Amino acid sequence: MRVVSGDDEWLRELVLSVGGLVEAPSRYKDDLAYWVEGREIAHLEADDVLDLRLTRALIRELGDDPRVERRGSSDWATLTVSPESPEDEEFVREMVAAAVQANTAA
Question: What predicted TM-score, i.e. pTM, was given to this entire model?
Answer without folding.
Answer: 0.89
